[in-house]
TrEMBL record:
<dbReference type="InterPro" id="IPR050166">
    <property type="entry name" value="ABC_transporter_ATP-bind"/>
</dbReference>
<dbReference type="InterPro" id="IPR017871">
    <property type="entry name" value="ABC_transporter-like_CS"/>
</dbReference>
<feature type="domain" description="ABC transporter">
    <location>
        <begin position="18"/>
        <end position="256"/>
    </location>
</feature>
<dbReference type="InterPro" id="IPR027417">
    <property type="entry name" value="P-loop_NTPase"/>
</dbReference>
<keyword id="KW-0067">ATP-binding</keyword>
<keyword id="KW-0547">Nucleotide-binding</keyword>
<dbReference type="GO" id="GO:0005524">
    <property type="term" value="F:ATP binding"/>
</dbReference>
<comment type="similarity">
    <text>Belongs to the ABC transporter superfamily.</text>
</comment>
<keyword id="KW-0813">Transport</keyword>
<keyword id="KW-1003">Cell membrane</keyword>
<keyword id="KW-0472">Membrane</keyword>
<protein>
    <submittedName>
        <fullName>ABC transporter ATP-binding protein</fullName>
    </submittedName>
</protein>
<dbReference type="InterPro" id="IPR003439">
    <property type="entry name" value="ABC_transporter-like_ATP-bd"/>
</dbReference>
<dbReference type="Pfam" id="PF00005">
    <property type="entry name" value="ABC_tran"/>
</dbReference>
<dbReference type="InterPro" id="IPR003593">
    <property type="entry name" value="AAA+_ATPase"/>
</dbReference>
């Protein structure tokens, strides 16, 4: 679905696409263990780009695992498209700070991986392989990696590896893309290039995205709404709705409107969590 098309709400009475209601999650036994999230509630519309920021250890990655269905909540409810999440979801793509490319596979073979393991693609992989290869090549071309299809991970720069990782997360056309600090290990210039690539993929494809980041300008540049999570156990303490035109361009980062959003978010995150002199957390 392109951003130009109107979204199809999961429920005619505009139920949110992703709905977390009073969700708590404790790792380990009650009384012991770690309470990662406490009574967290959050609604996300279909096709929305959401960012999540907050101090280290506040439960951001845990929130991602809840949405992917990889980890169940201890109490409360996680619903996607009106259905309670109680098992790993096929409709989710994920990318992490570590691109985690399989070293014995080329870029193209890494991108093809989800089609080899996720149903219904897996069933038809042999029959449809030529079509899938074409799809993976087109996606690699879309992120500027034409000609790099046959290179192995160790032959790619960090930015190229993350592009491959994005392609791998999107090749099975998931409805939801979960991004856990995907650009955290990249230099500033490469990171900004990747912002634009991600923004363009999202504008083209219309998936619902959630980005966990420590970089407030990154959150403002990419997201429609940015949620600030409290210190652990995490819950949403503040949400900024980012009313900036799209497509967003690097010049936007120098406008007062942009820096005001960054400062607004910064004031809602405890000072001790902020990097000295930096924009990150
Ligand atoms: N599998 C686990 N078992 C026990 N405790 C865990 C587990 N995973 C995470 N935790 C704990 O839960 C809390 C939240 O962790 P989580 O990784 O979600 O935080 P985060 O906000 O993503 O952190 P960071 O910003 O540093 O990546 C932390 O105290 C962490 O140590």
């Amino acid at each position: 679905m392109s951003k130009n098309q109107s979204a199809t709400p999961s429920d005619p009475v505009s139920a949110p696409f992703i709905h977390l209601n009073d969700v708590s999650l404790r790792y380990g036994e009650s009384g012991e263990g770690v309470e990662a999230l406490k009574r967290l509630s959050l609604n996300i519309s279909r096709g929305e780009f959401t960012a999540v920021v907050g101090p280290s250890g506040c439960g951001k990655s845990t929130l991602m695992r809840l949405l992917s269905g990889l980890t169940p909540c201890s109490s409360g409810k996680v619903c996607i498209d009106g259905k309670q999440v109680n098992q790993p979801l096929k409709t989710v793509g994920m990318a992490f700070q570590n691109s985690a490319l399989l070293p014995w596979r080329t870029a193209l073979e890494n991108v093809l991986l989800p089609l080899e393991v996720v149903e219904p693609y897996r069933r038809d992989f042999r029959r449809d392989k030529a079509r899938f290869v074409e799809r993976a090549r087109a996606l690699l071309a879309r992120v500027g990696l034409s000609g790099a299809e046959d290179l192995y991970g160790w032959e790619l720069s960090g930015g190229m590896q993350q592009r491959v990782s994005l392609c791998r997360a999107l090749v099975h056309e998931p409805e939801i893309l979960l991004l856990d600090e995907p650009f955290g290990a990249l230099d500033a210039f490469t990171r900004e290039e990747l912002w634009d690539i991600l923004q363009q993929l999202w504008l083209d494809r219309g998936f619902t995205a959630m980005l966990v980041t420590h970089d407030l300008p990154e959150a403002v540049y990419l997201a429609d709404s940015v949620h600030v999570i409290s210190e652990r156990p995490g819950y949403v303490v503040h949400t900024s709705h980012i009313d900036l035109p799209r497509p967003r361009t690097p010049e936007l980062c120098f406008t007062t409107q942009f820096t005001d959003y960054v400062h607004e978010l910064r004031t809602h995150i405890q000072r001790k969590t902020l990097a000295v002199g930096g924009a990150g957390l």
